[in-house]
Design brief:
By secondary structure, the protein is an alpha+beta fold. The chain has helices spanning 13-27, 29-34, 41-51, 57-65, 83-93, 165-177, and strands at 121-126, 132-136, 147-152, 157-162, 181-184, 197-200. The strands form two sheets. It has a four-stranded antiparallel beta sheet.
Amino acid sequence: MDGINGMDGMDGMQQIWARIETVLGRIAPKVLAAMPPGATEEEIGTAQAVMGVEFPEDVKVSYRCRNGLPGVLIGWHAALYSLGQMVNDWRERADDAGDPPEDDREADGVIRRDISWSAGWIPFIGIGNGDVICIDLDPPTPERRGQIIDWSHEGWRARYETAGLREFLREFASDLEADRYEVDDAGNKWSDNGLPLVSLKATG
């Protein structure tokens, strides 16, 4: 059994979100209070239908837990999209799907290198400069389906991040627990609705 109302493993998505919420409740209670509820099955189904994909189960479970995460910059990126934001971003890139790469790229078996953009790359974090973190539903081999990739508008290239959304959010939860994030109570243009901004602490 999985999902918001059941167990999905000792280190499953529901437990990962509980870890995230515990730390946010301590360091940024206003952000925790503003976290949206989980998406409904109808909302998940509609997003899948619009994009013509079937999400991996971990993605469905995550969005059943929380439909996005405003006010938090994950890694050096930006906030986790709601399903609506995901679909809007995907639509904006739809015309580029299938375009050839801008230069010769050797196949590596990790990410497709024969195209610049795929309709099967599902953006779930926008970095603000055109770059996006994506759920890869169009990998070169079936066993890599659902991996997380970081796509850059500079050269229209992508690089591997993690094996899936579970691993990606697990790393985020661990970084929160390790006190690698801080809160800007003043907020800035990246925050939604005047929320305090939670972001990685500067290093070096």
